[in-house]
Amino acid sequence: MEDKERLEDEGAVEIFEEDSTITLFDEENNPIEFYEIASIEYNERFYELLQPVEKVEGIEEDEAVIFEYEVEEGTTEKIFKPLFDEELLNSVFNVYLRAVSDYSFDDCGCGCSDCGDCDCEHEHTHNHENCDKEHCDCKNKK
User: Fold this and answer.
1) Are residues 93 and 124 in the same domain?
2) Pairwise CA distance, residues 17 & 97, whole Å
């Protein structure tokens, strides 16, 4: 399942929720499989945030890479180009960060993300007895 978030005049982000993968080839034509994290439209250009499925030299385990892409005319095939401009990389990544900070993740299943981390002033009725995730940080645990 995918979710699109439109940011005011700053781009659009499509977040891939499932383990969507894509295979790219390095300069020696070796295949490298990546998880598709997000597709980002910024300044009328398209970028993809990718994370290697397996360890890749030069990329830390918790890092991702950003490629610019174009869709080949008459097809749905994406043509990826590496992105080297640090300022552009930071701008594209910041669009992604803003989108995920607004995106509601319900990690524990108890509904605590329904109110934006429960920082609201109304009474809550969600039940944490069924919350089986140790990382649930809802401020209103009972």
Assistant:
1) no
2) 15
Structure tokens at 104: 């509601």
Clarify whether residues 124 and 76 are in a common domain.
no
Task: Specify the residue for token string 């990826």.
Answer: 80
Structure tokens given for 62: 């918790």
Handedness of CA 74, 76, 77, 79 (dihedral sign): positive
Q: Are 70 and 98 in contact (CB under 8 A)?
A: no
Asked if 96 and 112 sit in the same domain, the reply is no
- Could you tell me if 71 and 122 lie in one domain? no
What 3-state class would DSSP assign to 116? Answer: coil
Cα gap 113→128, rounded to integer Å: 12
- Same structural domain, 80 and 127: no
Query: Could you give the C-alpha distances from 89 to 10, 53, 61, 68, 121, in angstroms and in order?
Result: 14, 21, 19, 10, 38
* Model confidence, pTM: 0.64
**Side chain identity, residue 120:** C
The tens digit of pLDDT for each residue in 19-75 reads 899 999 988 999 999 999 999 999 999 999 999 999 998 888 888 999 999 998 899
